[in-house]
Amino acid sequence: MVPVKSRTRFAPSVTGHLHLGHLMNAIHVWGLARTWGAEVALRLEDHDRRRFRPEYESSILDDLDWLGLAPDLGRTFEFRTGSTPWRQSSATARYDRALVHLAERGLVYACDCSRAAVGTEAAPGEEPRYAGTCRDRGLPFDGHRLRVRLDPGSETFDDLRLGRQEQRPDQQCGDFAIRDANGDWTYQFAVTVDDMSQEISLVIRGEDLLASTGRQIRLARLLGRDRAPAYYHHPLVVGADGRKLSKREFAKGIGDLRAEGRSPGSVLGEAAYLGGLIAQPRPLAVEETPGLFR
Prior knowledge:
Helix content: 25-40%
Oligomer: single chain
Distance between the termini: 16 Å
Structural class: alpha/beta
Strand order of the largest sheet: 3-4-7
Shape: globular
Radius of gyration: 20 Å
């Protein structure tokens, strides 16, 4: 059930330009938020500082303005004019406090196992599961990857589209990393802390992130969150073979389409068509997106 007063977020990673896959997610976020009376926050996920580029952030903001996708919180001009709590790189103190909270309870340990070594233990097509090799080694935090301890147990939640879900994070992924050996926060940790501190009560995202939900619910509980957000996992944009399109297949960004003379409506309509939300490509206005879900 969607909370009576809810807030969702559009949270692109700042490691590339927006493409039609991102836009299909944005159509779901704005369309469902307006249908259910939720606020939309823009959060730029720039926790991966090695892949971050300032030009990516600028193009994301420009594309959203051009498309007419205006957030209620984290407005584009705020990112352009300086520090904002909706940019992950401005949230170091928030992440440090969350780490201390976990560490004081003995829930964090250092690990020197490489990602490659963990990956070799997984069967083809399976998610790598960390076996807890470094749990009791007592390695120093500095210079090592940090992991959170996960006890056995399941997490259940009702996806607003897919129905009842049950996941066992300890069996899916094991003790997952929350900070890498370079000191950068991981996706799983940063988004969980952000969603909690920014009062995100509705998460709308693609099915490729469904498997992350149980571990994020578990981590949020360990951090003190007493009620998980509502979740809606939408279908992905796929090719003729039914597989998710790769970033290479989305080579043309929204900025490229804009430079070709396309209109915002035609680009929105193409994304909605590729996502199966309309039967034929046609211009689509932002104001029409709620009608796609009623």
